[in-house]
Specification:
Distance between the termini: 35 Å
Largest sheet: none
Radius of gyration: 15 Å
Number of strands: 0
Order of helices and strands: HHHH
Number of helices: 4
Strand content: under 5%
Helix content: over 70%
Oligomer: single chain
Length: 101
């Protein structure tokens, strides 16, 4: 276990994700965007387990798209729009998971 309670493998995965995010945001020219990796991964996991595995990237893509659109049109800042879209997706997934069982 590492200091943060992660295994060495989890620590390496986290470091790889953070490096990838820095590289990708730089090349997309959005260096200042704050990314809540834990929230994104949790929602993606919820989508993957509630719907089907491929729903994870599609869900997170759509949330990012809606958040970017809201910011571009002046409806909301990115963080607010992202939280709102994530909440909508999470609520739908919770309803769906309740309906399955």
């Amino acid at each position: 276990m590492t200091e943060g309670g992660m295994t060495e493998e989890e620590g390496h995965a986290r470091e790889s994700i953070e490096l990838w995010i820095r590289e990708l945001t730089h090349h997309l020219e959005i260096d200042g965007v704050q990314i809540d990796v834990d929230a994104i991964l949790a929602l993606a996991g919820q989508a993957a387990h509630t719907v089907v595995r491929p729903a994870a990237p599609v869900t997170t893509y759509l949330i990012g798209y809606v958040a970017g659109l809201a910011e571009a049109t002046g409806q909301a800042d990115f963080a607010t729009a992202s939280r709102a879209a994530s909440n909508v997706a999470s609520q739908l997934l919770e309803r769906r998971s309740g309906a399955v069982g």
